[in-house]
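[Discussion] Sanity-checking designs against the backbone

I'm trying to build intuition for which residues belong where. Below is a structure token string of 114 positions. I'd appreciate it if someone posts a full sequence so I can compare it with mine line by line.
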């Protein structure tokens, strides 16, 4: 089992910005993905980055969120700008790689409210 740790959530006003980080305990990684789950809604994909730095985004966040790799291969960031109340959710990091089952972090709460 790979350990996955998220950080950076918090309370922000509409239009504000937050930066989330995710660090995994393995470097044999194929892809790292941010998901989010709002109350009473299903978990949805937000953004993904692969080991070849290909990225993809959900339509709801294109142009506002940017996923990037940190200084280490096993770390990613999610820069969120232009935040809206509908972005309020628990954000989870998922890691897929070699030698371990897909692993999830515990999640970090993002609340967008005035």
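Best answer:
Here's mine. Compare freely.
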């Amino acid at each position: 089992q790979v350990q996955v740790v998220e950080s950076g959530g918090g309370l922000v006003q509409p239009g504000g910005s937050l930066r989330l980080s995710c660090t995994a305990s393995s470097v044999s990684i194929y892809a790292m993905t941010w998901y989010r789950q709002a109350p009473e809604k299903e978990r949805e994909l937000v953004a993904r980055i692969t080991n070849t730095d290909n990225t993809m985004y959900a339509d709801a966040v294109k142009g506002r969120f940017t996923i990037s790799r940190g200084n280490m291969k096993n770390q990613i960031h999610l820069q969120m700008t232009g935040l809206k109340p509908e972005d309020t959710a628990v954000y989870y990091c998922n890691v897929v790689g070699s030698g371990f089952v897909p692993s999830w972090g515990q999640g970090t709460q993002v609340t967008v409210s005035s």
